Amino acid sequence: KLVSGTNDNYFVEYEIASECRIPGVLSYDNGKILCGIATLNGAHGLYHYFMRIQYAGSQESAYNKQANAKGYYFKDGILGELLSLFSLYFQCRFYLIATYQGQLSDTGLKIKIPNDFLYRSCNPKIHPKIFHNNKNFAIGLSDFLDSIKSLKNDMHQQFILSCYHYSSALREVGIDGEMVFIRLVSSIETLLKDFELRARENPLNGNNFNRLFSKCKFTNSQMMHLRQLLCVDNNGSIKIERIRRKFIRFIERYSKGFLRGGNWKAKHCKITKANFRSVLGAIYDARSAYLHNGEPMYLSQFMGQFYKWDTDPSCGMIIDNRKISKSRKLPYAYWFEDLVRHCLLNYLKINKGK
Question: What pTM value is reported for the model?
Fold first, then answer.
């Protein structure tokens, strides 16, 4: 839950910022969450907003003594959850500027605790949508937060963590293009826990290991290694995970309505249903090669006015003495980010209230 219904509460105030000017004021759950009032600050050219959150208990409550290993956890707390959700809803970046805590006197003065954060300005054309906004704090956001609260507990945490990776990816724009892809892939992977492939796509899953392999002439060491590869549980049931295929199938399922036809002048720079699956595979393989082997990603290069393309027009590249094939080329980050956001919103729409 984002806020508590108990009467034993206290408020903490925050100053947050974004590149986007968002009008209106959010008043959620009878004022337990307030956010709005945009002012332009000259330091980074960001719009600053005031937020107030009502917390359960008292400020002296240091920790929950009833916490357990399966308890709800989000490392940035309620504010971090909200900023991640705001990033998804508005498709823009948010930064914590300062926290205001503790009354100094009866006048209600607060102690300002500044927050250091990494920010680098960049050309908005490299990722156009996150620098422009047409939404309002007062219209639609409360309904969006209600739909988040309607998710069942385990699905709620998975979705919030997915939003965390999504918002982290946005903050990497203009800083590290490879990390944008890594975070976006993680955003999808977070939701794959309960996503099942069809039987013909994962035929070993759910079968009994001993029944299938008891007559095979393996050594004990080979048998143990095979059990590990197939993720055999204590009951002997095979729980093999085909994460790459799950990643592709998940996006295919929840991307309905994303790919659209049209008469494109540069068709080789657009991603269509015909090459959609191969592009998703290239993204996942590039992420895995980066993390496991230190391989650089072959990213589409920014070409100014052609920001509406999905990929650049190159057909491979040579860097120093290495030749990289066209099949390894990744789309522009703004295409993949838009796709991931579309999938997350469809996932929420389909699963809310379940």
Answer: 0.86
